Amino acid sequence: MRLGVTVSSVVLWLALALVPARALAQSSTTGAIQGVITDATSGDALAGVTVVATSEGNATQTAITDEKGAYKITELAPGEYLVTFYYLDITLERPVRVGLQKVTPVYQKLDPSTATGEVVRINR
Q: What is the H or E stretch that residue 38 is in?
């Protein structure tokens, strides 16, 4: 009988080890936003767009779009955010509501042809 308990314990541990971590994270208390930023005229992806999510309490999280124009900002507390897109000297803001355990899609089109003036980028 002792061998049966040991085998059962091993089987249980193996089963738990095979459960994906994401499935165990169902009690998460955050949400996320993600999307793709494209050129308003051509539809091409815009790489290098800075996306900043600012909460009502002024906490910020930042992402930069990849070569496909995609970004994702995770670990956001549920609530209202102001999402700001920075590209060249273009700044565009829009309000977004982040839900608990939800990925909120936020897609945006920007028009680089409207950029004027000199662009200065400061890296921290």
A: strand 31-39
